[in-house]
Specification:
Number of strands: 3
Oligomer: single chain
Order of helices and strands: HEEE
Structural class: alpha+beta
Helix content: 25-40%
Number of domains: 1
Distance between the termini: 74 Å
Amino acid sequence: MSRQLEVVPLASLVQSGLMAVRRTVSNVEGILASLRCIEAIRLYAATHDNRLPEQLSHITEVPIPVNPTTGKPFGYRLQGHTAILDVAGVNYDKQYRIKLAE
């Protein structure tokens, strides 16, 4: 019975650690991008008579980031007077609900 030995014995441990760091960095990037979207939504409302945008693409005051995890736009929709931002990450799915004070 032949057993394969690692050339660098700690390589598998280092690799799994690096993967965990990459997942964490990806999650932080996703959170920061979603917060930028939320602030863009607030800016839009502040400059449009306190109305939420019907689509993220209607926001032209600032650039809207894409979801760094997927490379696609964040999910966004209006539900009554509440904006819903869907954020999919490596280890999580979040949903932000934005409702403006009256």
